[in-house]
Structure formats: C-alpha cells, structure tokens
UniProtKB/TrEMBL annotation:
<dbReference type="GO" id="GO:0000256">
    <property type="term" value="P:allantoin catabolic process"/>
</dbReference>
<protein>
    <recommendedName>
        <fullName>allantoinase</fullName>
        <ecNumber>3.5.2.5</ecNumber>
    </recommendedName>
</protein>
<dbReference type="GO" id="GO:0050897">
    <property type="term" value="F:cobalt ion binding"/>
</dbReference>
<dbReference type="GO" id="GO:0008270">
    <property type="term" value="F:zinc ion binding"/>
</dbReference>
<comment type="similarity">
    <text>Belongs to the metallo-dependent hydrolases superfamily. Allantoinase family.</text>
</comment>
<feature type="domain" description="Amidohydrolase-related">
    <location>
        <begin position="52"/>
        <end position="432"/>
    </location>
</feature>
<dbReference type="GO" id="GO:0006145">
    <property type="term" value="P:purine nucleobase catabolic process"/>
</dbReference>
<comment type="subunit">
    <text>Homotetramer.</text>
</comment>
<comment type="pathway">
    <text>Nitrogen metabolism; (S)-allantoin degradation; allantoate from (S)-allantoin: step 1/1.</text>
</comment>
<keyword id="KW-0479">Metal-binding</keyword>
<dbReference type="InterPro" id="IPR006680">
    <property type="entry name" value="Amidohydro-rel"/>
</dbReference>
<dbReference type="InterPro" id="IPR017593">
    <property type="entry name" value="Allantoinase"/>
</dbReference>
<keyword id="KW-0378">Hydrolase</keyword>
<comment type="similarity">
    <text>Belongs to the metallo-dependent hydrolases superfamily. Hydantoinase/dihydropyrimidinase family.</text>
</comment>
<dbReference type="InterPro" id="IPR050138">
    <property type="entry name" value="DHOase/Allantoinase_Hydrolase"/>
</dbReference>
<dbReference type="GO" id="GO:0005737">
    <property type="term" value="C:cytoplasm"/>
</dbReference>
<dbReference type="InterPro" id="IPR032466">
    <property type="entry name" value="Metal_Hydrolase"/>
</dbReference>
Length: 455
C-alpha cells in the first residue's frame, strides 16, 4: 500500500507535463502515470485537479544569520518562510558568525540547522583568505561549493584578492570543487560610494549609480578569464546585468566551465522599486534600470542563466527604515525566499508563456544537478525523494511580509499582486504547507550531503 497518491495534477517531468498521478512510499516516489487497479491503493490521497505538480523547488542562495547575533533571520524562521514559498530544499550561503571556513565551523552550522530547519537543507562553505587548506575537509563534510567575495563584504568574510581567486580555481580544476563569487569590482564599488557621499547624494538611486554596470561587468569578465585559464569551475551568483549574460553566453560557447544565477528582483523589478522603497530594496548588486531588466530575460530564456534564486537575507525593519532619508544608513540585502517561486511562476508562465518544465529547471533541477543533490532532489521520477510543490497558477494574492513567516515581517514587494500561488509544499511525502499554514516544526528538515548521494 502506498503512503500517498497525488492525483489529477499536471505532473512536471524533465521532458514535459502529463495529466496523471504520483505515488509515494516511504518518502520516495514509487509510481508515476495513470492509476490502475491494485497498484494505487493508498493511505492518503490529494486531489490536485487544476494544479501543477512540480518537483520540489530548491533555493540555493539563502542567508541565515544563525549562529549569529539572534536578531536577524534564523534557521527556524527562514525555513518556515521557505516552506510557505514552495521551497523544499534550501542551500545556505555562509554569512553567519563564525564564518564556515573550516571543519569546526561547518559542524556548528550543521548542528544549528539540524535542530531548527523545517525543510531539507544543504550547506555552502566559505572561501576566504587563509583557508585554501581547509577546502578538502569542508568538501568531505558535504559543502556543495565554496562562496567568496571579490567585492568587499565584512570582516568575517574578507575580500578575495585576485591571486587567491586564481589559486582557488586551480584547486577547483584539480579536485573538482565548485567555486562561486559575488562578482563586483571591490575598489570601483568602494570608490563609487565615496564619490556619491562627497557629492552629498543620499537618495536611493545614489546606491545604484555608485555601482554602475561596469563594476559588475569587469568582475564577471575577470572571473571568466581566470576560470578559462585554469580550467576550474565557477558559478556567478545574483547576476544583475544583461551585459554579463552576454559574456557568460560566449564563455559557455567556448567551453568555459561557468554557470550563473539571477534573482526575481533583477527580472521582475527595477530601480524604480529602489527609488520608491529605499533601504527595503537596497541590495548588491543594485537594482538596475528597466531596459536592463527587460534585456536580462533573453539570457533566462536561452539557458545562459541556469537558475533563479532569492539571495534571501532578513534585516531588522528598523535597520532598513533608517535609510529612508539617507540610503547609506542601512546594509545591503532583501528578503525573498517566500516570494521567489510565486514571482518566477507569474513572470515566466503567466506573462511569458514558458513551459512548466523550463520553470522546473530554473527553480529545481538545474540547482540539484549543479550542487550535487540530483537525482535525490530536483526531479519527479521513481526513487527520488517525494518532494513536490503544488501550484495554483490562476490564484491571485497580495504580498504581505507579515504573513510570510519572516522573522522581521517585511518584504520589498509588500502590496504587490502576484498571480500564481503555492497550494501545497510536500517534503519526503509529508505535507509541510497547506491552507496558508506551515505544518513542519523545528528539526523536520534533513541534511542532504551530496557526497552520500548515489548518482
């Protein structure tokens, strides 16, 4: 007897969509197809009529400040928000304290996450000056990749100089590790901010103009060059510029081992949101002008951009409000894990007619493959984890950050109307979100170690 059958839904596979049923046994997908006598007897059934049944969505760019100062998003709140947003697996980027730069720090992160996570999770490691000799241990413990900042970040995650980036890429080639960078030219960004402040600019658009497109474009170009010279493997996070997409497209055509992601705020929003909401829409790279936003879609459509992620980070409401009259008065970053999937579904399927399987690639399959979670995650097929996101593509709703399970209760999209809603989130055959309520508790989420997944 099956534990669960999801029937009458539009089931999204890698190569298309079929109207039928999915059977679950012991947390794994057991059956796919049309129900036949004797095979589909089940303890529980979900009628998904009119709904899309996607492979559980994966957000590989979520910042949890935990362990940390306990005032910003922790593992419990952020993974509740993930469940509410149809995310079944998060991959956490290290910005917490201590930085995930060695084995003991990784173990502490894993312990913290295991006690609090409401969805399944995997972990990044940090790439910082002085820890190249720690990468092997971090990789063995399950780090999916190593994230570094060639921009300036903070004292816990120092700027990576070019020499270190080059050496890390050589190790990437030798060991098969995946590296990722926040691609902005550190000196140009810092100088641009100083210039704006000297001019007396405090308005929101001063933030965008301080980090003009060339700041990101130069860094992407440099990273591509180093990656091509070393034969390493590099991932560009939260790319905001269409010109960067063109560089990556050409690099891929030459056989450079490089991938890229963008975020909803770069393809569904533009700098007018920054102008309107100041600190609440301040992030790096910054929101860009509308013409860039429209052009960036070309690289989503043709596959140059491999995935769409949230880059979620949750600052105090008061921290962001402090930048209302002076944009320099708050740090950079926005919430987004709960709105990632609905915004992508609306923009891609409702507004641009993307096929469902293309959206599954952008929100699940490509991330699972790149970060080593495939075929356990990221696909609907027998033997995979029974992770599903059920979507009502016609349902309209209005964003309210207070209802999204964020610790600080705000969203940069508060008041936006979105068409396309998460109906249910299911992890390993267990319904963790339905009827607007998260049902999983602390510790439900399992750690997914890519080193232990049979390929």
């Amino acid at each position: 007897m099956l534990d669960l059958v999801i029937r009458n839904g539009f089931v999204v596979l890698e190569d298309g969509v079929f109207l039928g049923s999915v059977g679950v046994k012991d947390g794994k997908i057991s059956l796919l197809g049309q129900e036949e006598d004797g095979l589909w007897e089940t303890k529980k059934a979900i009628d998904a009529q009119g709904k899309y049944v996607f492979p559980g969505f994966i957000d590989p760019h979520v910042h949890m400040w935990d362990p940390g100062k306990a005032i910003r998003d922790d593992w419990f709140h952020a993974t509740q928000a993930a469940a509410a947003g149809g995310i079944t697996t998060v991959i956490e980027h290290p910005l917490s304290i201590p930085p995930v730069k060695n084995g003991p720090a990784f173990d502490l992160k894993l312990k913290t996450a295991s006690e609090k996570a409401c969805v399944d999770f995997a972990l990044w490691g940090a790439l910082v000056p002085g820890n190249l000799d720690q990468l092997e241990e971090l990789h063995a413990k399950g780090a999916v990749a190593f994230k570094g900042f060639i921009s300036y970040c903070n004292e816990d995650y120092p700027h990576i100089p070019d020499s270190l980036l080059y050496e890390a890429l050589k190790i990437s080639k030798e060991k098969g590790y995946l590296l990722a960078v926040h691609a902005e030219n550190a000196e140009m960004a810092a100088t641009g901010e100083e210039k704006m402040k000297a001019m007396g600019r405090r308005d929101p658009l001063a933030h965008m103009e301080s980090r003009d497109e060339i700041v990101e474009l130069e860094a992407i170009n440099r990273v591509i060059f180093f990656t091509e010279q070393t034969g390493g493997h590099m991932h560009i996070v939260h790319m905001s510029i269409a010109k960067g997409g063109e560089l990556i497209r050409k690099a891929k055509q030459r056989g450079v081992h490089i991938t890229a992601e963008t975020c909803p705020h770069f393809i569904a929003a533009d700098c007018s949101l920054l102008e309107e909401r100041a600190g609440f829409a301040k992030c790096t790279p910054p929101l860009r002008r509308k013409e860039n936003t429209e052009k960036l879609w070309e690289y989503v459509e043709d596959g140059t951009i491999d995935m769409i992620t949230s880059d979620h980070t949750d600052y105090l409401y008061e921290e962001k409000l402090a930048a209302k009259d002076d944009i320099w008065n708050c740090e950079n970053g926005m919430t987004g894990v709960a709105t990632l999937a609905p915004m992508v579904l609306d923009e891609c399927m409702n507004k641009r007619g993307f096929p469902a399987q293309k959206v599954a690639q952008l929100l699940s399959t490509n991330a699972a493959k790149l970060f080593g979670l495939f075929p356990r995650k990221g696909i609907i097929r027998p033997g995979a984890d029974a992770d599903f996101t059920l979507v009502d593509l016609e349902k309209e709703w209005v964003v309210d950050g207070k209802k999204l399970y964020y610790k600080q209760g705000w969203s940069p999209y508060d008041g936006w109307k979105i068409k396309g809603a998460i109906d249910k989130t299911i992890i390993r055959g267990t319904v963790v979100f339905e009827d607007g309520v998260v049902k999983s508790d602390k510790g439900f989420g399992q750690y997914i170690n890519p080193r232990k997944i049979e390929k």
